[in-house]
Structures are given as C-alpha cells and as structure tokens.
Fold these 2 entries.
Entry 1:
Amino acid sequence: MISTQLLDASSSRDIARAKQILQRGGLVAVPTETVYGLAANAMDPAAVKSIFAAKGRPSDHPLIVHIAGPDNLRDWAVDIPPVAYQLAASFWPGPLTMLLHKSPRVPAEVTAGRETIGLRVPANPVLLALLKDLKFGVAAPSANPYKRLSPTSAAQVFAQMSGRIDAVLDGGDCEVGLESTILDLTGPELRILRAGPITASAINQCTGLAVSQPQQHDIAVPGNVAEHYRPNTPLYLGTRAQIEVASKAKGRCIACLFYAEDANAPDAAQTVIMPKSKVLYAQRLYKTLYSLDSLGLDAIWLEYPPTDEQWRDVNDRLARAAAIP
Ligand code: TXA
Ligand code: MG
C-alpha cells in the first residue's frame, strides 16, 4: 500500500510536488476537462506499467497520451495527415483524441503493442500548464479501477484509488464529465471509435470530410467492451411508465433518475431530476451515479434521455453501464 497524497491544484507548491512525482516515474491522478486521468511519464515504460497495475487494467488496452500542444504531435506520431492539424486548430485543447501512426520512439507499453497512438491536448488549465512545464507527455487512462465509473472529482478518485497511486491533484469537478471522442485518422476515412463531446457533424463541418461512426464495441478500441463504466448497484434504463412499475415492486428500494421536468415522482428512496441541457446532463451523470451507488440500494432506474446526435456519447455510456432487467 502506498500512502496517497491529496494535492491542491491551486497551490503552486502542490503542483511542483505533482511534477516531481511524475518526473520520478510515479502516478498522479490529474484533472482533465473530461474525467480525471491517471497520469505517468509516457516515455518511462516502468511508470506506464504501473498504471495498468494500479487500475487492474488488462495490458492489451492502449493508453491515450496527453500532450501540451499540436507542436508536440511529431514527438509521438509519424505520417501525420494535414487534417490532424486542422482538427487540432479547431478542437484542441479539448475532448478530441486523435488516433495516429505511432512514432517508433514511443514505448510499446503505452500503445499495448499497437502501431497507432491516441493523442490529445487536454483543456484543463492546470494540467495544460503542467504539460508545458514537463519535458514529456503523460499517458493517462481514466482514473478508475477497471470497468468502474470514471471519476469526475478528486474525492471520487481518492475513494477508488487511494493506496494504489502516489497522489491525486484536486482541480475541482470536471467540466465536461464524459470521456473524449476518439477519432481514427489512420484509415482511408475518418472514423469515430468512441462517441464523445465532439460529434461526427462537428468534425465534418471542420474538415469537410465524411466521418464514419461504426457500431460500438469495435475491437479497434479494446476498452470498448460492452460492460464498462459500471456502478456497483444494478442500473436499469426505462421509460417513465417502466420506472413507475419498478418503484412499486414490493420490498425493493430504488433510486430514480429522470430526464428533465418532474412528473409525479414515484415513491423512490431517491429521485433525481437531471438537467435538460446535454452539456449539464453529461457534467452531472457520472457524479450522480457515483453518489447514488454509495447508498446501497437494490437498483438505480434511469429514464432514457433524448437520442439525437449530441446525446450519442451519453447513450453510449449508459448502454454499457446498464444491466439487463
Ligand atoms: O477523456 C478521455 O479520453 C480520458 C481523459 C483522462 O483524457 N481518458 C480516457 O482513457 O478515457 P481510457 O484509457 O479510460 O479510455 C481510452 C480508450 C480505451 O478504450 C483504449 O483502449 C482506447 O481509448 N485507445 C487508446 N489508444 C488506442 C489505440 N492506439 N488504438 C485503439 N484504441 C486506443
Ligand atoms: Mg476509462
């Protein structure tokens, strides 16, 4: 067991401490605008290996490398198409991960032996400043144990990962709340491998190119397994009518999450009315599921949110988080 330090992102002393831990090959959970990431020096194979150990993540699941800016792309990737710079100019810093051909100098551990590498410039100002200061990029998966909910606050990381990592840098709650869009630029056409806040339409508008979005569970994204992002309490998706029925089941103690306006809240242990705006909904989703999960209830029922394009990432994560009734 390691004793995990809780560092404050508003203290320059604590940021210097985080930097020092990373330089020495340690693990620091860092805030990004999407979710907290578990960071290590991406050029240090031993440090990268310890990320997998801390998360209990299979070693064939590649990691995303976080870099300071598009100027650093050449340090990590080769054969970079011009469209990568066009996308970087529009969406970086921000929740877009670009899959490119890996440079031979990147340790195989980072990409789990693959010839491609996921790269992104995160928008969190503290992490971005840290990356500009460091001489290396950081590999960082979401800072949760394998298959569990991604953390959107330092407290959540601490609760799940304390004792397994050197430090958590507390930079407050994540603004976006859902993981980045993963876009594959290595094939004949642009392909979204993981739905995220940057939609296919936004990428098409920026580049003028067609963007395909194949069915999820694509093996090209090993972490794209069907069961993922799971709370411990069984989570069910349903219509309001189905939730009404579930709330009346004898002896069951459930929580209900409604999409926007309250109708007649059923007799549940907890009822949460989620925001109507997609941005706010996404920001709160994991946090809400995480806090309901701690109540030890029989089930969490969640009302289906809208299904239009901007909600695709929310629906994608919910489909993986939900159990079959
Ligand atoms: O928003 C995010 O992307 C967050 C923050 C911390 O940046 N990171 C994140 O990382 O969600 P992770 O490891 O939890 O999810 C990244 C996904 C995994 O499913 C992984 O298999 C896939 O990206 N991935 C990474 N590199 C890849 C590669 N070279 N080829 C295919 N899939 C890759
Ligand atoms: Mg993850």
Entry 2:
Amino acid sequence: MKLDKATIDALAEHLESCQLQVRDTTKITDDHPDMDWADAYAIQAAILARKQARGLKLAGLKAGLTSFAKMKQMGVNSPVFGWMTEDYLVPHGGEVKTSELIHPKVEPEIAFVLKKALRGPGCHIGAVLAATDFVLPGIEVIDSRYRDFKFDLKSVIADNTSAARFVVGGQPMAIRGVDLRTVGIVMEKNGQPVAFGAAAAVLGHPATAIAMLANHLGARGQEIPAGTLILSGGITEAVAVAAGDHVTLKVQGMGSTGLRFI
Ligand code: OOG
Ligand code: MG
C-alpha cells in the first residue's frame, strides 16, 4: 500500500459524495499517481463500509471488464471486481430515476446465484459450475463517477467499478447440460435491438469471471458465500440511456428482464 488510511478514507468519501450528489470528478490517479492495486481495492472497501455503517446490506458482487468489447470500449486490459448494495437493486420491470445518476449506461450480463460457497486460490470453472444454483438474465446500470467515463484501472476499481443499479429476472436456468458459451443474448432499447452476443464473449465462458472473483477474494482471505448473486460482466459494449428509455434483455433459455429510465 502506498496511501495512508486517512487518504484512503478521504478518497472514499470523495467518490461516494460524487455518487450521492450526482456530480463527476477527475480520476483519482491524477492526484495520486503512485497508488497501487491494494490502495484501489481499499478505497472501494471503505466506500462499502460507509454504506454498511448507514445500515445498507450487500445485495451482490460483480466482475467487470470481462469481455474484449468492454476492455476495448474502456481502453483497459484486465477484469475488475466490485459489489452492489441493496439500494442498487431495481425490481424486475422497475424504474430508475436518471436524476440520481450522472451518465448511465446499460450492460447485458449473465447473473450467477451460488448454492455453495466458493473460495480461491485455485478456483476454476468446474468448481463454479458445481457451486452454481442457477443463472438468470441481468442488466447492470453503470455510472462512472469519472468525467466522460475516462479512467484507468486503479481509478475505476476505487470507484467500485462504476456500479450504480442492476436488475435481474426472467427464468432462472440450471446449468447442468447447458453450454453457457453459446447462450445468445439480445438487448433492446425502446424496442430496437442495440446489442447482441453470446456469453462466450465473457472470458471464453462467463463462469471464468466467477472463478477469477473467487481467486481475487481468496487472495484477501475472503470467500463468496453460498447464496451470493454475482454479475459476470457485460457481454457487449455498454449502451448509453436517458430518461424515457426502456431496456429489455433477452437471454436464450432464460426469458427476459428489463427496466425503465424516468
Ligand atoms: C467499468 C465497469 C465495467 C462490466 O460489466 O464490464 C462493468 C466501466 O466500464 O465503467 O461493469
Ligand atoms: Mg457490468
């Protein structure tokens, strides 16, 4: 770690204030070019601690920048991990107030729900598939606190990987006998298809993203508890949305979920 605790807490407060006051900021590595990966995840953890101190519960975990489309869109080259608290959860078919967000975008994702805990190091696709209860469609609403969504990896990790809202729903699907790689998705905005793909776009197999999350947490002495919901990362580039838009994600064999922006 390169930053002291006071600096980490101050940066956490700064980034959370931007989120709560709906204003953007320059990326934090501009002012702290020597910060390291541990600092970035410590800032992210300090933001979660602030929310939990106010009584908010954890609603799920996420992997991001897990597809080449997303890495290319954001100009970075490795996955990142974050969390969602209960206030990020939008009910299936529910509304998102754009007045609470800076510049939201939506991403089509496969959500995993575990029946058994996963602990790295050494976690692999096989362990993830054995521990998965079911998968279902998920739309993540990302809203980077950085101006124009311009960031480097350390800055976006500190900003909890741009997490803002999410919806899951549709038809939960058990994965036994299913090849998740060839599961097709279509995301529609206002009835028009705006993104298409197959789940293999996420690291060759979306379960890889869950294994990487387990290994990331394992390196910190943490596990993914049984029952956890995890977003495995955008399959395509993220699509900008505005008030008045409605978005639907259809996933082969899993029905659809959606939400509206007001
Ligand atoms: C970072 C978060 C990316 C995903 O699914 O790839 C992410 C960003 O692009 O702002 O959640
Ligand atoms: Mg995402």
